[in-house]
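for the writeup, i need someone to sanity check this before i put it in the appendix. the sequnce is what the collaborator sent (i think, or maybe the updated version? ugh). structure was predicted straight from it, no edits. if anything looks off just tell me and ill rerun, i have time this weekend
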Amino acid sequence: MWRWLLLVLAGCPRHTGGVVETTVVPPEGTAISIFVGSAPGSAIAVIDDRRKITVAGNAFTLDRIDPAAQLPALVIESLDPHPDHQPFRIGTCVRERADSSAPGLDRLAVPRPPQKPLQPRASLPVPPVGVLSPFVRCTVAAAPGTYHVRVLQVTALPAFQTFHQVSITGEQAKIATRFAITTLPWAKQRASLIVFDGLPGNAIAPRASARSEVVLDGAVALLANPPTTARAHLRRIYDGALRDPATLPTTPSWGKGSSTRVTTNVDLEGVDLTTGQVDVHLELAGEAPRDLLVLPTERERRGTTQRLDLGPIATLRGSRKTSVETLGKVIKQQLALSVTNTGDTPQSVSIEETLRPELARTIAGLSATAKVVGDLVRVDVVVPPKGTEQITFTVTYTR
């Protein structure tokens, strides 16, 4: 994937050979594009570095190559015009195995714990983090001299964090996102840094969300995008079905398990938050302001909305009963969903059930107030104090 990504971003073949016709030689400098996916740990960086190199003895040395970058995906091209059609073809590139700088040697000198008796010895020792050299030596078919080149490399970003701050007042949410990035230790060189929401190659093109000039000194750089607003729908929801991702919807036991949690949820319209920490500040009429931390397991994408789980409601308890009959390719499922209110005030609750996706279905027994949106059934009810509200319906699927 990384090699494909570099070729797309470079817009040229890997290790370009032949003549590169340019009328203006781009200035030296570094641009870093960070692409952030919705899954944890999916951030990658594409480093576009324009620099000068010196070729001697059909080889040259590159510094500032991230130890985590994959050398087979490295793209190097000459930016100089060659009116005499002199070749510039990259051969093989190899990395120095150890960083001979003072910090690198210090890491190598860290004592390792003694091996315990009868403990199996590892076949290959694992080098300490950060001891790979940033120097890479490449062979090249080119005349001796100085060349202006472009170097593209892709690297993962283990030291990258995203923080979302969502402030909800009534039916409006204000969303601010910050990015904390540990920069590369490249002798305090300056770089242009852009953060994109999304990964290249997805159905939706990545969107630039923050940009800044940073110093590559190994310290943490903070970037922030302008705050945005979105409509916020706060609901008390009972969605008791437990769905195992490893179980196919065509399996009769799909969604058989259930929970009793009734939660407060907020749906943010037209918002797709990248992976990262979500801090919510909630201000509702008649209630004291609250600050909540939403974990990655407590948020999900539902159609065009981002749903945040703000926690269970102690006075509400849900119940879900289901029975399934199968006859050939037909699955008939009967459902009884109810919510009990142990409190002293009425509570508005949305009872939801996610249907088996991608199967033809017929629904019977739903009330006129029920809503079916895509694969979701929702019935809004008001549960009286010390009372219970129940809905029942049947879904017939054809596999």
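DSSP finds two helices and 27 strands in the chain. The radius of gyration is 29 Å.
thx in advance!!
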